[in-house]
Specification:
Chain A: Belongs to the cytochrome P450 family. Chain A: Keywords: Heme, Iron, Metal-binding, Monooxygenase, Oxidoreductase. The complex is a heterodimer of chains A (400) and B (63). Chain A is built from 18 helices and 12 strands. By secondary structure, chain A is an alpha+beta fold. In chain A, the strands form 4 sheets. In chain A, strands 1-2-10-7-3 form a 5-stranded mixed beta sheet. In chain A, helix 9 (154-165) crosses helix 12 (218-249), helix 12 packs across helix 14 and helix 12 runs parallel beside helix 17. Chain A is globular. In chain B, the strands form 2 sheets. Chain B has a two-stranded antiparallel sheet. In chain B, strands 2-3 form a two-stranded antiparallel ribbon. In chain B, strand 2 (24-26) and strand 3 form a beta hairpin. Classes of the chains: A alpha+beta (400), B alpha+beta (63).
């Protein structure tokens, strides 16, 4: 019998999808789910690489989110993430200049200052809420700073960004449309300010940028800003929070990391692989394509399940399901693959590395003291709240 | 071993630079510069990882 997994539901991703992924990779690597209008779930590493490398066969123009069963309409606000070649490359290059390793490395002092400011407020030895209260503050401040938003707006910014992606979650009070509207108004104000007075922030750079001799339209500019905020916030928070949980669940790895902080970059790669903070992206077949004996019909959706590919035994061997911070090489697909691969990957790596460097320099023990409450999302099922107690190496004896 | 870059595929994201900074550099215009077409002896592992890790398959090695 064909396996039946609810790939269209947040609960699937909030639980442990690893056993289902293992089964699917072996028994049904190109797997049809009829819910939500139907889509193919792709779980093997090689297949996801194949699809990612062929944007002419597997388009992003119909959207990259999990199909929801509603009829597809062409988005009036084309986003970089839903743009196909050849325009995609030209648009992307505009913005990628600000995200090269050189530019991102130059941000390290700023990133460290933000992380220190957040972690200096964390007390040792008493229970605290870690995800919302600490981790979440870091990526949103960095992205908001990059966009040129003044510091006093950062917290408001975060509430809107959270709400605009958390629409499937009944606990989020503000609807995603309301949050999207609030952000649009806010961005318009930032743009108006730059009309008079350009600075060196990302908004100013984008206002002066041209694709094929034309400036970006107001809508294009606006969608860039939305995309950057949403893409840079929840994802990094999820990586750090779930990465911390992976360390808590593997105390021997945590000890190793505390003793040898030079392992942190490799540990971040392993967190990316093991956690896969973004569960999937979707593509749409532009013609009939045969894959592993199945026919993906023109117009059908394929959902690329990065977390499944990241545990593929054919690539990661018989330790594929093990969390191993010394893994090398680690060619995971957590940032996607192909020309839509995550633009912000150098920044995400920097943020996570600096966060764990600063965290583990202060605290050498981390324990969960309660339940982990997750975001009910199929794409970025992050951590809403998690309570932990942090033990400091120096004060540890007193609070134990 | 020589490094061959396909500019039509490269999006200038700089994963190669992060893995092998002595060989790859994305310049201020977002264009990838291959600093050494011949793979340096001491950087062979990093270059191999960079070539295999390129998300757009813009890099390959030629003997």
């Amino acid at each position: 019998m064909e396996p039946n997994y609810p790939l269209h539901l947040p609960d699937f991703y909030i639980g442990d999808p690893a056993p289902a992924y293992r089964d699917l990779r072996h028994s049904s690597p190109v797997h049809w789910t009829s819910a939500n209008g139907g889509f193919w779930g792709i779980t093997r590493y090689e297949d996801i690489k194949f699809i990612g490398a062929r944007p002419h066969l597997f388009s992003s123009a119909n959207g990259v989110l999990m199909p929801d069963g509603k009829p597809r309409t062409v988005d009036s606000r084309p986003m970089l993430i839903t743009t196909d070649p050849p325009r995609h490359k030209a648009m992307r290059q505009l913005i990628s200049k600000g995200f090269t390793p050189k530019h991102i490395n130059a941000m390290e002092p700023d990133v460290r200052a933000i992380v220190r400011d957040v972690l200096d407020a964390a007390p040792a030895g008493i229970e605290l809420e870690y995800a919302e209260g600490y981790v979440a503050k870091v990526p949103v401040r960095i992205i908001a700073d990059l966009l040129g938003a003044p510091a006093e707006d950062w917290e408001q910014f975060r509430a809107w960004s959270d709400a605009s992606v958390g629409s499937a979650d009944p606990d989020v009070k503000l609807s995603s449309q309301e949050a999207f509207g609030a952000l649009t108004t806010y961005f318009r104000q930032l743009i108006d300010l730059r009309e008079q007075d350009r600075t060196n922030d990302l908004i100013s750079i984008l206002m002066d940028a041209e694709v094929d001799g034309e400036s970006l339209s107001h809508d294009e500019l606006m969608s860039f800003l939305h995309l950057l905020l949403v893409a840079g916030n929840e994802t990094t928070r999820n990586l750090i929070a779930l990465g911390t949980i992976a360390l808590i669940n593997h105390p021997e790895q945590l000890r190793m990391l505390v003793h040898d902080p030079s392992l942190i970059p490799a540990a971040v790669e392993e967190m990316l692989r093991y956690v896969s903070p973004v569960t999937h992206m979707t593509r749409w077949a532009t013609e009939d394509v045969e894959l592993r004996g199945e026919t993906i019909k023109k117009g059908q959706a394929v959902v690329l399940l990065y977390g499944a590919a990241n545990r593929d035994e054919d690539v990661f061997g018989d330790t594929a399901e093990r969390f191993d911070i010394t893994r090398r090489p680690n060619p995971h697909l957590a940032f996607g693959t192909g020309e839509h691969a995550c633009l912000g990957l150098s920044l995400a790596r920097l943020e996570a590395r600096v966060f764990f460097e600063e965290l583990l320099a202060r605290f050498d023990r981390i324990e969960l003291t309660g339940e982990v409450l997750r975001m009910r999302s199929t794409m970025v099922p992050g951590v809403r709240t998690m309570h932990v107690r942090l033990g400091s190496a120096n004060e540890g004896a007193a609070v134990r | 071993m020589r490094i061959v870059l396909d500019r039509a595929k490269c999006t200038g994201i700089g994963i190669c630079e992060a893995l092998a900074p002595t060989v790859f550099e994305v310049d201020d215009n977002g264009e990838l510069v291959v600093l050494s077409t011949e793979v340096p002896e001491e950087a062979q592992n990093e270059v191999t990882e960079a070539v295999e890790g390129c998300p757009t398959m813009a890099l390959r090695l030629q003997s």
